[in-house]
Write a structure and sequence with these properties.
Blueprint (H helix, E strand, L loop, with lengths): L1 H29 L3 H22 L3 H25 L24 H4 L4 E5 L11 E5 L5 H40 L1 H4 L21
Helix pairs in contact: 1-2, 1-5, 2-3, 3-5
Length: about 210
């Protein structure tokens, strides 16, 4: 019963991770955030692998899924530090999310709740193919929206890691138990055969 509950819970967590990653992928595409797009794609593949491993009783797939979650927590922790500008990180100087290929920011910068976007006409600081805007009136700044999104990913990843380790351990115990029960057959064991103690004597007949 516990094994079944663990599998169901892990599938539910993976489903939540998949929905959150797909939602995040859409907004990262809209904001031309190439580094998060690549990370989200890898995460989606790992979550699908975790679901497949849970349904098909593949402990190795769950181990790979758990290892990826450790990397995923590290990546989202970096995103939190980046948008909060921890240490020497700066959004005005470092365009890591776009691989330094453009000046695009998060999609939420212009489309956050309550944000009013005003274009600045005839700006001399605007590069080619770019425009300068001012954003005001946001109920929640885009930095904090990105931080909350990354924090949600970290929370789901922690739950997924715990349940992946638990379900993988259960699968491995079941495999060891099955090997022990069928161990004699796997080594070609044959029960001893009874030998007859009756000795055959030659029969002589008079000619």
């Amino acid at each position: 019963m516990g094994k079944c509950d663990g599998r169901v819970t892990l599938v539910a967590i993976c489903s939540l991770q998949l929905m959150a990653a797909l939602q995040r992928q859409v907004f990262d595409f809209l904001g031309y955030q190439w580094a998060p797009i690549l990370a989200n794609f890898l995460h989606i593949m790992a979550v699908i692998l975790g679901i497949f491993g849970t349904v098909q009783f593949r402990s190795r797939y769950l181990v790979l899924y758990a290892v990826w979650l450790v990397l995923w927590v590290g990546w989202n922790s970096f995103i939190i530090c980046f948008y909060l500008e921890v240490g020497h990180l700066s959004q005005d100087r470092d365009f890591l999310m776009t691989f330094n290929t453009s000046l695009h920011r998060s999609w939420w910068m212009e489309h956050g709740p309550g944000c009013l976007v005003t274009p600045v006409l005839d700006s001399r600081i605007a590069p080619d193919d770019h425009h300068v805007i001012t954003v005001s009136g946001c109920l929640l700044d885009y930095q904090y929206i990105e931080v909350l999104s990354a924090a949600l990913q970290v929370l789901l990843a922690l739950f997924g890691f715990v349940y992946a380790c638990y379900v993988s351990k259960v699968f491995q115990d079941d495999e060891d138990s099955f090997d022990f029960i069928g161990g004699f057959e796997s080594y070609g064991y044959q029960p001893p055969q009874k030998t007859s103690h009756l000795q055959l004597q030659p029969l002589y007949t008079a000619g």
